[in-house]
Amino acid sequence: MKLALNTYSKYLRPPSIRQFSNRMKGIDDCINLTVGQPDFPMPDVVKQAYITAIEQDQTAYSHNKGLLETREAISQYFESRYGFTYDSEEEIIVTNGASEALDTALRSILNEGDEVLIPAPSYAGYIPLIEMLGATPVFIDTSETNYKITSQAIEHYITSRTKAILLNYPSNPTGVVLSYQDAASIARTLQQHEIFILSDEIYAENTFSKPHVSFAQFPEIRDQLLLISGLSKSHAATGIRIGFLLGPSYLIEKLTFAHAYNCICANVPAQYATIAALKEGITAPQAMNEAYIERKNYLSEKLQALGFQLDAQPEGAFYIFPNISYYTDNDFDFCVDVLEQAHVAMVPGSSFTDLGKGHVRISYAYDLESIKEGMDRLERYLSTRYPTKFKNRSSD
């Protein structure tokens, strides 16, 4: 006998990236360029703090919001790094990864029938979380504005049903970042509307040509803003599951209960590791970013030489999002064929909403040697599969 799940369980579907992971099984020499996980080890100082916490039996529950020392370290980090402050006792929750922070926020603010504005192409993981609550994601096409949301677009899409906007810069999948002027304009617009602002800034430390601009830098929207961050990308710590959820005390008070009823508290040894990461390990992202920049520059030049177009240059995160329409508009079939014929795995752009069609996402969170081998295989594939187009391609 099979029992029925709730109505919204129909929105629970396997992530498209995982679908390709499954297709890779049995391909022993596959070059996997799909996953957004740093290829660096977690910094030694962070590892040691984690180990020490376990050795000293620091494994009991913490406060629901997290260890006060951890919240103080988070508060001090944002103040010294970006110039804004959150109260460590009233305005910060330590979560089990940024994903849990996002889930806690959405479950706390959304009602059935609400709409959430999302600039697209967008990280696909947001969508089921919203749909499972009976709310609707509304995608804002950013393809004509270098994948950056604009004030004009926000004004066009806001309705009486809009409950929140979910922003993600640096962006997954495009790698674009916002300038201070971009973010300030958006903040001025959002201040005029009674909606929540969820800013997923998990890639904040992975910016290359300019400093990250956080929406928390704009006091006029702080009462609307829930800021989400964590250690997964900045400190190659995806597996220890540490996220930060910051917001005004009137929101954090209630969100703490949603977090507590779900998981009581965040991983306690990892909370001690967080203190080390944000103090002694604060410079760790710099070395990673140097490698990412080298890989990004190689990919940018190589992909354009192969006939792909870059609608916008990535300046953060560790993704590049080339337009493949010179060869084909069917990004899913293209990725399947490249995987099966060339043994290179990429993510179809349509995995990031229909507004990503005709593109692929390539992660450069892999060593440069593997990336170069993947591009060599892709070049051989294109020359064989599309010989005329490949011969006549423009490499400008």
Automatic annotation (TrEMBL):
<dbReference type="GO" id="GO:0030170">
    <property type="term" value="F:pyridoxal phosphate binding"/>
</dbReference>
<dbReference type="GO" id="GO:0008483">
    <property type="term" value="F:transaminase activity"/>
</dbReference>
<protein>
    <recommendedName>
        <fullName>Aminotransferase</fullName>
        <ecNumber>2.6.1.-</ecNumber>
    </recommendedName>
</protein>
<keyword id="KW-0808">Transferase</keyword>
<dbReference type="InterPro" id="IPR004839">
    <property type="entry name" value="Aminotransferase_I/II_large"/>
</dbReference>
<dbReference type="InterPro" id="IPR050596">
    <property type="entry name" value="AspAT/PAT-like"/>
</dbReference>
<comment type="similarity">
    <text>Belongs to the class-I pyridoxal-phosphate-dependent aminotransferase family.</text>
</comment>
<dbReference type="InterPro" id="IPR015424">
    <property type="entry name" value="PyrdxlP-dep_Trfase"/>
</dbReference>
<dbReference type="InterPro" id="IPR004838">
    <property type="entry name" value="NHTrfase_class1_PyrdxlP-BS"/>
</dbReference>
<dbReference type="InterPro" id="IPR015422">
    <property type="entry name" value="PyrdxlP-dep_Trfase_small"/>
</dbReference>
<feature type="domain" description="Aminotransferase class I/classII large">
    <location>
        <begin position="29"/>
        <end position="378"/>
    </location>
</feature>
<keyword id="KW-0663">Pyridoxal phosphate</keyword>
<dbReference type="InterPro" id="IPR015421">
    <property type="entry name" value="PyrdxlP-dep_Trfase_major"/>
</dbReference>
<dbReference type="Pfam" id="PF00155">
    <property type="entry name" value="Aminotran_1_2"/>
</dbReference>
<keyword id="KW-0032">Aminotransferase</keyword>
<dbReference type="GO" id="GO:0006520">
    <property type="term" value="P:amino acid metabolic process"/>
</dbReference>
